[in-house]
Design brief:
It is a single chain. The termini are far apart. α1 packs across α2. The chain is rod-shaped. It has three helices and no strands. The chain is mainly α. The model has no long low-confidence stretch (mean pLDDT about 90). The longest helix is centred in the C-terminal third of the chain and has 30 residues. Helix content is about 75%, strand content about 0%.
Length: about 80
């Protein structure tokens, strides 16, 4: 699987959110430790979230395809012998 990477802007926003969480719920954390934490979660936990998203998207697509199949069936016309 390809490594999960974020743009500089995304990474800055995520690090800011991690730091805000630590300030609010735990002990304050610096920017560098927050980046290390982000990297850890991206590498170790990220694939679980990514795969879950893929499975959810797959299930949603299958539901849509079933709907399309039903719509096509409704469009069919009776064949005369």
């Amino acid at each position: 699987m390809k490594k999960i990477e974020f743009s500089k802007e995304e990474k800055a926003e995520i690090v800011s959110r991690i730091r805000a969480y630590f300030d609010r719920e735990l002990d304050p954390i610096g920017a560098l430790p927050a980046e290390f934490l982000l990297d850890f979660f991206s590498e170790e936990v990220g694939p679980y979230f990514y795969n879950r998203g893929l499975r959810d998207a797959h299930a949603a697509l299958l539901r849509r395809l079933e709907d399309v199949g039903e719509d096509i069936h409704l469009l069919e016309r009776e064949e005369k012998s």
